[in-house]
Amino acid sequence: MSEQPYNPELHINEEPRNDFVDVAYGFMAMFGFVVIVSALAMIFSM
Fold it and tell me: How far apart are CA 41 and CA 33, in angstroms?
């Protein structure tokens, strides 16, 4: 009986990524989108 328990650390990531950089890019993109929409809303409300 050589049953190995599932160990996620043994899984080879097919596409290595830096999670922190992905999250940082996501926050920056969302912030930029909100700023642009807010600026357009302010301009059109004048």
Answer: 12
Displacement of CA 14 from its chain's centroid (Å): 18
Tokens of residue 38, six digits: 């807010």
Q: Which tokens is 37 given?
A: 């929409």
Determine the residue type at 44: F
pLDDT, tens only, 27-40: 999 999 999 999 99
CA 33 to chain CA mean position, Å:
15
Separation between Cα atoms, residue 23 and residue 46, nearest integer Å: 35
Q: What is the DSSP letter of 12?
A: P
CA gyration radius, the chain: 22
